[in-house]
Amino acid sequence: MNQEIKLDDKNIIVMKLLHYFITEKNYNPIILQGVEDEIWLENMEEDYKVIRIVSNYIHNNEQFDFDKFKTERIVKKIKRKTLSFNVNVLSIFLDLGENVSKDLLNSNPNSLCININEESDLIKNGIIKEQFPDISKKLKFNEKGIELFVKITNDINKHNEKDAKKVDNVFKPKIPIITYILILINVIIFAGSTILGNYNNIINAFCVYGPSIRAGEYYRLITGIFLHGNIPHLLFNCWVLYVIGSQLESFIGKFKYIIIYFISGICGSLFSIIFSSYPSVGASGAIFGLMGSLIYFGYHYRVYLGNYVKTQLIPLVVLNLIIGMSPGIDNFAHIGGLIGGTIATMGLGIDGKSTTFEKTNGIIITILFIAFSIYMAFVIRT
Fold first, then answer.
1. 350 and 300 Cβ atoms separated by less than 8 Å
2. Is position 233 annotated as part of the catalytic site?
């Protein structure tokens, strides 16, 4: 015997809110163990990154204070997982008792609470009207009763399926052709020049060297990133390029990937001739740019990659920067490449995540950064 679906006024409000926040505002449900009679939704791109829909009855101030305490603990976990310093929470209470002091509702600006007894309260509420001005129109349905339930359920399922396909398309493995080509170029140049016996001549002619570049040999800004000092240097850079590059190329696509690689490499070369007087070779500046790009990508997909970025990628970058302080390593190229790759990714944008405003700022910052680096390298250092 099928269980009868109970559609009282509170359940109808819950369904309509779920429909609005999921299908219209792209919030995603958060799975929480041991939490009953409340629904948590997250969208890290919104002002209120977490929405709570609380349907259980809270009858006094003590129970309300416990609810706030529990919420704060869960939000701390969300912050750690999503690499977020500030997570604003909007709690929508549907069954708040008269004994709960209304002064407690908005006592914390980062965790606002509103009391909704009926659907019209949503439209009247100042916080809702300011943050979600279209909600009054989106809560209107022609369907009633079980038809409303079916309509909302189908819409949410279709939206979730569409989002799942987008995420699957981003994270499904792809052949990193550009990464393979870059590794092959590095190996061919090193092996070919070594076999021909003129590797030192090639290093001297094409390495990143400030005086030669300022004299007009600008090609060195790029050619230097395809040269390596010895076999261990080559093997290490090719290995890191494979590990980091294959992931990033799969995530953001070949076109953006190759642009980020060369911008990172050039920025690394510019920083090298700004802060160092010695010749420099190696792909590490470009590779650090890929690391910065992957961190930026991981931030936008922090719900999926937050732990990876926090526990593996960022420590890897920090560790390599510390190692780069050793004699004979051009750490300035690493820093320049890291900055260049990060801001270039900001300008190119993350599909489905970056706003036009964010990409425009990224393009402006990238242009200004490169222009400033060129000025420092060719004017101040002259």
1. yes
2. no
Percent of the chain with pLDDT over 70: 96
**Residue 115 · residue 336 · CB < 8 Å:** no
Clarify whether residues 182 and 102 are in a common domain. no
Could you tell me if residue 3 is inside a domain? Answer: no
Q: Which amino acid is at 105?
A: L
> Catalytic: 334?
yes
Q: Are residues 166 and 178 in the same domain?
A: no
The values of phi and psi at residue 215, to 5°, are -80, 0
Residues 236-268 have pLDDT tens digits of: 999 999 999 999 999 999 999 999 999 999 999
Q: Are residues 262 and 278 in the same domain?
A: yes
Catalytic site residue from 111, 280, 334, 373: 334
Among the listed residues 298, 293, 297, the one whose alpha carbon sits nearest the alpha carbon of residue 310: 298
Comparing CA positions, the residue from 175, 187, 297 lying closest to residue 239 is 187
Contact 260, 305 (CB under 8 A): no
Residue range 18-77, pLDDT digits in tens: 999 999 998 988 877 666 788 999 988 888 899 999 988 888 888 888 888 888 888 888
- What angle do the packed helices 284-300 and 231-240 form, to 10 degrees? 20
pTM exceeds 0.85 for this model: no
What CATH code is carried by the domain that includes residue 299? 1.20.1540.10
Tokens of 232: 């261990």
CA distance 302 to 311: 12
98 and 212, same domain (yes or no): no
Structure confidence by residue, pLDDT tens digits, 276-328: 889 999 999 999 999 999 999 998 888 788 778 888 888 989 998 898 888 88
Choosing from 284, 293, 354, 373, which is the catalytic residue?
Answer: 284
**Are 162 and 193 contained in the same domain?**
no
User: 111-115 and 50-54 as β-strands: parallel, antiparallel, unpaired?
Assistant: unpaired
Residue 177 and residue 146 share a domain: no
- In a domain, residue 2? The reply is no
**319 found inside a domain:** yes
Domain boundary among 135, 170, 205: 170
Structural domain including 292 reads: 173-380
Q: How many domains does the chain have?
A: 2
C-alpha pair distances (Å), 194 with each of 21, 57, 183, 199? 61, 77, 17, 5
